[in-house]
């Protein structure tokens, strides 16, 4: 295979990520180098150990909070806003979990090392943002939850589980939209102001 000149770190990490998602901790640096069009020696000049390369390639992506909440606060129907936000969070987990699983199951990388390398987890940041949103909505009388943090934890955990179940092949690898809507409706019944709880499903 011909050698690529001046491959960027971003390109190299993208190739490494592909290999590690396919093979987990057993992904081969030889395979990474071959796919990137460089030698293993060149690879290890940039990342001195396989573990360092693994950590750099599999760094958990932070959620794009600006995108997740875009137009959500302006949505007049808080029930519809919940569905929009939830679908975006689910999209984030569907992208992030395949990348995060090899990281958290790596036999040579413990929790302490992950925290040193990356700091606070994306899920914690996401839950905080959702809790703040729910608190704001509760203050404005748009939802009835008295514990925004608990409601946020429940929502984020449920959507995380949906993405994880899909990765495990449950429901053929794709949980039906109707099942996700039903789950969100159950959550809504515990959050809705009395006047809103019995309205029809959002479109």
Strand content: under 5%
Share of helix among residues? 55-70%
Estimate the mean pLDDT confidence. 87
Distance between the termini: 52 Å
Structural class: mainly alpha
What is the number of independent domains? 2
Concise summary:
By secondary structure, the chain is an all-alpha fold. Helix content is 64%, strand content 0%.
Topology of helices and strands:
Blueprint: H1 9-23, H2 29-36, H3 40-46, H4 50-57, H5 65-68, H6 78-104, H7 111-118, H8 122-139, H9 148-167, H10 177-191
Helix pairs in contact: 1-2, 1-4, 1-6, 6-9, 8-9, 9-10
Structure description:
It contains ten helices and no strands. The protein is mainly α and 203 residues long. It starts with 8 loop residues before the first helix and ends in a 12-residue tail after the last helix. The relative contact order is 0.11.
Keywords:
single chain, 203 residues, mainly alpha, Arc Repressor Mutant, subunit A, 2 domains, 10 helices, elongated
């Amino acid at each position: 295979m011909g050698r690529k000149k001046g491959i960027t770190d971003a390109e190299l990490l993208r190739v490494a990520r592909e290999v590690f998602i396919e093979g987990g901790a057993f992904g081969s640096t030889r395979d990474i180098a071959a796919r990137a069009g460089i030698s293993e020696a060149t690879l290890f000049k940039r990342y001195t150990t396989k573990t360092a390369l693994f950590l750099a390639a599999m760094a958990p992506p932070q959620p794009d909070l600006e995108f997740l909440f875009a137009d959500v606060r302006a949505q007049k129907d808080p029930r519809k806003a919940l569905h929009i936000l939830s679908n975006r969070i689910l999209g984030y987990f569907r992208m992030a979990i395949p990348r995060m699983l090899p990281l958290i199951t790596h036999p040579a990388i413990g929790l302490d090392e992950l925290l040193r390398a990356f700091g606070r987890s994306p899920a914690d940041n996401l839950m905080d943002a959702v809790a703040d949103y729910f608190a704001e909505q509760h203050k404005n009388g748009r939802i009835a939850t008295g514990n925004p943090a608990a409601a946020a934890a429940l929502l984020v955990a449920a959507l995380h589980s949906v993405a994880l179940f899909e990765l495990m092949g449950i429901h053929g690898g794709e949980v039906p939209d109707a099942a996700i809507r039903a789950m969100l409706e159950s959550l809504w019944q515990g959050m809705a102001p009395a006047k809103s709880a019995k309205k029809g499903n959002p479109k």
